[in-house]
Inverse folding.
């Protein structure tokens, strides 16, 4: 399949407004998750390339910071219009790189555009706070100042949304940025760079570097010229980043993994609960930080819920088209990790009631396809209950009552999202108050947040920061207190 109309076979970096290969001239292979074939090659960047990108960002920063926020918003609005104009091409790239359906990729691109619009509008606000003072003849206020150069590192699961989540808030605040693209979705980041360039984003304001995490991501985190780091990815890598950045006291935002609980009470509308459970566990092949991977069901409705869930799960279609429910996982390593985890769960006595294997045969041959997988009879202490697999795998658990459900939901090192299905306002309210997560949903699925809302987790799901919403502005800008004093003698 030719992809030349969408992106070059060798995907370069964008540094200082120009496309360039990595200094070493090396390229890394990106495979098509649907077929396993090589789809493209991306620049294999290392420290030297990161130095060049940070240098370009540093050089461009004073002028960008000196541009009024309203004007920055206008320029970012042009980027959004550029995305809108080539929405289909962007979605095609997303679909090719991830294996998700064109319809889903288009929906994701629409989400990225909405987010861009939200932040372009922020250029007209960027509010600080004006307040009273304890002293006579004094006024107190805060103003927002850019942090400087932002280092942005993202995961591949929703690639264009992930780019937008970081780039728009970073730039509207007056920072310039170096984005380390996810190695599994290099062309999505590249095409965003092209759209931004064509829309008139000044050279050096956004630099995009391709490469592996250890080779290109780590030097970006360690670079003394990077003032704020925002990372979306695994908890394991988030910890490493926090350590490295912590040594030089750099500001860090970490949006990490989840092991999200989906609670079904005995008074739930079971049809609705099953509908949302299937979407929450399997959409985007379970590659969502917000995916429901622990389905916690009251004993009284367990058999009924399980029967309906199995029926729906077995009817799911897996493949890359709009007629499929979800696609492949992003790479073979991810697939093999999940298969091994299912085997270990079986050794610990768990029962696989759906899936548990790689899909093969004509439609899935050589693709990274995992059958939708449901497992029961798992101890809450087992790896299967505690670790994130980031794929179409969920465990089923039975509980006697609300207290047990809540306690099991909270028995996790993660705390990103959770949901509860109940008709009782009392159960719903108590759950929203007591569940240890950053997002909680009543009577729907476990999902991420809308562009104007703050998303993020507690415990091992993050470090307490929130993106997007206006809360992301606190990551990408520093507040400065300003005190204005009146001299009464001079009146
Ligand atoms: P990952 O942590 O392996 O990689 C994420 C990014 O970090 C990639 O760009 C990678 O190249 C880079 N990286 C890897 N090692 C690095 C290092 N040593 N230094 C700097 N950068 C490094 O994660 P993944 O498997 O690609 O993505 C899945 C994870 O992302 C899951 O845990 C998922 O829950 C999480 N995620 C979280 C959110 C959120 O908003 N909380 C959203 C999407 C995904």
């Amino acid at each position: 399949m030719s992809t030349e109309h969408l992106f070059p076979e060798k995907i370069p970096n964008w540094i200082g407004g120009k496309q360039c290969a990595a200094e070493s001239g090396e390229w890394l292979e990106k495979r098509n998750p649907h077929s396993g074939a090589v789809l493209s090659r991306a620049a294999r960047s290392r420290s030297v390339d990161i130095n060049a990108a940070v240098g370009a960002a540093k050089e461009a920063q004073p002028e960008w910071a000196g541009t009024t926020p309203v004007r920055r918003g206008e320029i970012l609005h042009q980027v959004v219009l550029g995305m809108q104009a080539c929405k289909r091409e962007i979605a095609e790239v997303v679909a090719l790189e991830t294996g998700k359906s064109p319809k889903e990729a288009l929906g994701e691109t629409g989400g990225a555009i909405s987010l861009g619009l939200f932040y372009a509008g922020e250029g007209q606000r960027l509010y600080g706070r004006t307040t009273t003072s304890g002293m006579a003849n004094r006024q107190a206020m805060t103003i927002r100042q850019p942090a400087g150069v932002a280092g942005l590192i993202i995961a591949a699961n929703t690639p264009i949304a992930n780019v937008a989540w970081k780039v728009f808030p970073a730039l509207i605040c007056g920072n310039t940025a170096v984005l380390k693209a996810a190695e599994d979705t290099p062309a999505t980041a590249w095409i965003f760079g092209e759209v931004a360039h064509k829309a008139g984003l000044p050279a050096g304001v956004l630099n995009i570097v391709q490469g592996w995490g250890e080779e290109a991501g780590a030097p970006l985190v360690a670079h003394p010229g990077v003032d704020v780091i925002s990372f979306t990815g695994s908890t394991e890598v988030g910890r490493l980043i926090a350590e490295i950045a912590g040594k030089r006291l750099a500001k860090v935002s970490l949006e990490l993994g989840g092991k999200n609980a989906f609670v079904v009470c005995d008074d739930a509308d079971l049809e609705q609960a099953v509908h949302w459970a299937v979407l929450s566990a399997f959409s985007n092949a379970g590659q969502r930080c917000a995916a429901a991977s622990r389905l916690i069901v009251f004993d009284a409705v367990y058999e009924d819920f399980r029967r309906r869930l199995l029926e729906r799960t077995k009817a799911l279609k897996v493949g890359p088209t709009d007629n499929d429910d979800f696609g492949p996982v992003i790479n073979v390593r991810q697939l093999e990790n999940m298969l091994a985890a299912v085997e270990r769960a079986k050794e610990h006595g768990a029962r696989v009631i759906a899936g548990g294997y790689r899909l093969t045969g004509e439609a899935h041959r050589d693709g990274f396809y995992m059958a939708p997988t449901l497992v029961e009879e798992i101890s809450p202490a087992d790896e299967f209950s505690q670790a994130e697999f980031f794929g179409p795998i969920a465990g089923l658990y039975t509980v006697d009552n609300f207290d047990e459900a809540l306690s099991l939901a909270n028995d996790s090192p993660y705390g990103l999202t959770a949901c509860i299905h109940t008709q009782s306002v009392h159960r719903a309210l108590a759950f929203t108050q007591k569940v240890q997560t950053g997002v909680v949903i009543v009577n729907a699925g476990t999902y991420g947040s809308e562009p104007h809302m703050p998303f993020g987790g507690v415990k091992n799901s993050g470090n307490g920061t929130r993106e997007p919403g206006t809360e992301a502005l606190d990551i990408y800008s520093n507040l400065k207190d300003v005190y204005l004093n009146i001299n009464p003698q001079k009146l």
Notes: DSSP finds 15 helices and 22 strands in the chain.
